Amino acid sequence: MSINTFSEVPPIAQPPYRMALAKLNELKTQPQELLDKGFIQPSNSLWGAPVLFVKKKDGTHRLYIDYR
Asked: Residue 16: helix, strand or coil by DSSP?
């Protein structure tokens, strides 16, 4: 499956947000776990999606991806 894009529209370049070290570590481990389980696939897309972490009751973080 692929997403068709317009070739004349470049990706939006924004600097990454600053993130606490704990959240940065979660951002590295959670996608790798999802890849290992086969829930997601690697992408070579130039486009990205912002992520948000929400703290759960047990103190861990849940990863949300904004695909709007």
From this structure: coil
Strand bridging mode 61-65 / 51-55: antiparallel
Q: What is the pLDDT of residue 36?
A: 93
- 37-42, long-range: CB within 8 Å, 24+ apart, which pairs? none
7-33: pLDDT as tens digits:
777 766 766 677 788 878 888 888 888
Residues 6+ apart with CB under 8 A from 23: 53, 61
12 secondary structure, DSSP code: P
